[in-house]
Amino acid sequence: MTSNEFFHPVSGFDLPRFAGVPTFMRLPHVALGDPRLAEVQIGLIGAPWDGGTTNRPGPRHGPRQLRDLSTMMRAQNGATGVRPFELVNCADLGDVGPNPADLMDSLDRMTAFYDRVRAADILPLTAGGDHLCTLPILRAMARNRPLGMVHFDSHTDLFNSYFGGTRYTHGTPFRRAVEEGLLDPKRVVMIGIRGTAYDMEDRDFAKSVGITIIAIEEFHARGVEDVMVQAREIAGSGETYVSYDIDFVDPAFAPGTGTPEVGGPNSFQALQVVRHLKGVNVVGADLVEVSPPFDQSGGTAFLGVSIMFELLCIMAQALSERG
Ligand code: MN
Ligand code: MN
Predict the structure, then answer these.
(1) How close is the Cα of 251 to the center of ligand 2, in Å?
(2) For the segment 245-283, what is each residue's pLDDT rounded down to a tens digit?
(3) Range of 291's domain?
(4) Contact call for residues 296 and 253 (beta carbons, < 8 A)
(5) What percent of the chain shows pLDDT beyond 70?
(6) Which runs of consecutive H residues, i.e. helices, occur in the chain?
(7) Distance from the alpha carbon of residue 152 to the mean position of ligand 1, in angstroms
(8) pLDDT value at position 1?
(9) Among 71, 125, 186, 323, which one has the highest count of C-beta atoms within 10 angstroms of its own C-beta?
């Protein structure tokens, strides 16, 4: 399978990478109403919403900053040799328009957007936004059958409620997703969990439904390769979503996020874990929780788009091998 030239990104040899309108990875912008939408196979989407944030805010500004830094991405993956833009048609589908003053309305707007993406048979790669954005995406992507999930994060995001009964925050999306039948818990693995905790309620829930948690101590003891062999086994051959919270990475490398936790993987390991997803049937992915107001150097957003590029390579490979 080869892509249509219309969907190739602008090369830095034709227009310097600091110039031009910054779409994701310098791809063409194809809005949902555009007739070219029918040709798109992977859609890069911004979800500029952080209405589920309970601590330091700012991921609503993530997509714009990630688009800007994504102009640094070139056409070829230096480690794996993959040239994603030549394998499949990729485009920037623009931003989901949230309602910053109404949480439940924002969730519905996002699901409606991803319903249209799914109806067009496009695999979404989303830039958040906070982690609650993943719930409305899954509501569209996992309609009719539950998905597996590989989840990189320093938190499980499996809590039941915050502040005495608030059920929708960026700490609860996967509890709701399991309850709503969007995820098959036996095919869910959460990697990198660490930090201080309110209690173990989230981990007890994980155990009770069969979600696998690989805490950071185990991750460092076993190493990337061994952990990712197990992650691939858990995901199996079924349709799998990949959700990547930037706070998975150590705050020395990714300080620009709302809920950092020390003792995490370095920026090289942050890319490596994604490369080891080769062969997994990835039907969608996201990179969430980059908060530009806390990202003084822009380095967190740069790492974020580098992770998005790795995710894109895995998705493009999976799609082209499926034919
Ligand atoms: Mn998270
Ligand atoms: Mn987190």
Answers:
(1) 11
(2) 999 999 999 999 999 999 999 999 999 999 999 999 999
(3) 3-322
(4) no
(5) 99
(6) 62-70, 84-87, 103-119, 134-141, 173-179, 201-209, 216-222, 224-235, 267-275, 299-322
(7) 8
(8) 58
(9) 125
The CATH number of whichever domain residue 88 belongs to comes to 3.40.800.10
Task: Note the pLDDT of residue 179.
Answer: 98
The tally of domains found in the chain comes to 1
- 238 C-alpha vs ligand 2 centroid, how far in Å? 25
Tell me the residues surrounding ligand 1 (ion) with CB < 5 Å: 131, 153, 157, 245
Cα separation, 129 vs 246, whole angstroms: 11
Dist. CA 192–CA 224, nearest whole Å: 11
Residue 309 has pLDDT above 90, yes or no: yes
Take residue 300 and report the two structure tokens written for it. Answer: 């967190």
Can you state the angle between helices 267-275 and 299-322, rounded to 10 degrees? 10
Q: What is the pTM of this model?
A: 0.98
State the distance from the centre of ligand 1 to the C-alpha of 65, rounded, in angstroms: 19
DSSP 248: G
In the reported structure, the alpha carbon of residue 247 is separated from the centroid of ligand 1 by a whole-number distance in angstroms of 7
- Confidence check: pLDDT of 11 > 70: yes
Task: Report the alpha-carbon distance of residue 187 to residue 44 in Å, rounded.
Answer: 25
State mean pLDDT over 21-41: 97
Residue 322 pLDDT? 82
Q: Is the peptide bond before 46 cis (omega within 30 degrees of 0)?
A: no
